[in-house]
Amino acid sequence: MKKRATGQTSFSDLAIVELGGPRTAALLAKLDAAVPWKALVKPVLELPEYAKYIADPSRPGERPIDPGVMLRGMMLAKWFNLSDPQLEEQLKDRISFRRFAGLSQTDPTPDETTFVKFRKRLRDAKLDQVIFDAILKHIEEQGLLVKGGTIVDATIIEQSRGHKTGEKDKDGNDLTTRDPEASFTEKNDVSYHGYKLHAAVDVSRIVTGLVTSTASHHDSRHIDELIKNEKRAVFADSAYSDESRRERLYHRGVLAAIIYKRKKGQKELHPWQKKRNRLVSRVRALGEHPFGWMKRLMNFTTCRYRGLRRNGFDFTMTTAAYNVRRAVSLLSRTGPLAASR
Question: Same domain, yes or no, for 121 and 150?
Fold first, then answer.
């Protein structure tokens, strides 16, 4: 793998040692400590593209860039809402970003194409879930999960509806640029086109599990997968209200804290149901916070890619990056994170 160009601190590095924004540097130091980089890099090094050079260091050919540098770059892109071209530009321009990525002033900067190829390698190897799980495990080891139950919720991420190309298929239908794997759904009488992120959230507002689906999937379709390991309580809104699900949770010894909705023929909820709904809503609302944070600060409102798998990879990496930011926020109240290199 391509490491630092010189293997040691260069004169140019020493010349700018005091430069760089102190606030950004402080934030990046906290984020750096919140990520188990060794655990993230290890499975990447096992991919054929890297393993062959580890097995035979003298092997001829262009070596791939250190995956640690690439993973750090990908996280920067998520935390600061950067496209691949913007990430390349920022790595060339910002001292704090280069330091965080592990690049000296004389090291070549990975270009946008390199990040595209690296992302594809991870996606093809299905390492997005491995990365998500490694970060979640590190957060759990820091004692940041409350583990007082699982909150389940879903959000729509919109995809472009495309436009007509002016051509027709063999059946005479208009051809469009619309993503064929995205679908339509309605919410509050408004039509949406895209995908859904279904998430399991700890009371600490750390996302502990997720599923990506097309938008037409009902919110409750993936809840059972998300709560299969929950042993205490499940909090969810009325979209997940189902008597058979309540019964299954009861037999598992799990509290079914799911908002009640009126049954067919029921004019209004019983007073006890209304009271229970109010109590459940206070906790259930916490499950919406990760979505709000990602949409507001990470521009997680529209899809960056076409297709379920590409967007599923992106959703998982975005959520993993959010978890790191949330962990840093929680640690600012409880103490410093143990560095993990």
Answer: no
Distance CA 326, CA 206 (A): 7
Q: Is residue 332 part of a domain?
A: no
Using left for φ > 0, alpha for ψ between -120 and 50, and beta otherwise, residue 160 falls in beta
Cα dihedral 22→24→28→29 (10° resolution): 20
Give the number of domains in the chain.
2
pLDDT in tens, 203-261: 999 999 999 999 999 999 999 999 999 999 999 999 999 999 999 999 999 999 999 99
Q: Are residues 107 and 53 in the same domain?
A: yes
Q: Spell 83-121 as b/e; 16+ CB within 10 A means b.
A: ebeebbebbeebbbbbbbbebbbebebbeeebbeebbeb
Tens digits of residue pLDDT in 137-177 = 999 999 999 999 999 999 999 999 988 877 887 787 878 88
Range of the domain at 31: 11-125
> Is the domain of 54 the same as that of 202?
no
**75 with 91: CB under 8 angstroms?**
no
Domain assignment present for residue 151? The answer is yes
219 within a domain of the structure (yes/no): yes
Helices (H), 94-221: 95-101, 112-124, 127-141
CA distance 102 to 41: 14
Give the helix/strand (H/E) hosting 108: none
